[in-house]
What we know:
The chain is mainly α. The chain has two domains: 1-31; 35-65. The chain has two helices and no strands. It has helices at 4-31, 39-63. The longest helix is centred in the N-terminal third of the chain and has 28 residues, at 4-31. It is flat and about 50 Å long. The protein starts with a helix and ends with a helix.
Amino acid sequence: MFSKGQIIFALVFFIAFVIAIIWAFRKDKKDNKSLFKGSYKILLFSLFIFFALFAVVKLKHLFFP
């Protein structure tokens, strides 16, 4: 499906992207504290939706192969 190089590239890209997002968030948080009030709730909700969709797909494949 994917070559070893494509998987490695995707992992490295994802890690670099997450680090860049965290760095930018922390940099902006110092400047604009009022803009990020409650932003952790949005992050947690987004993660919940992602894992819920993942679970639905896995359960679908489990019950309907």
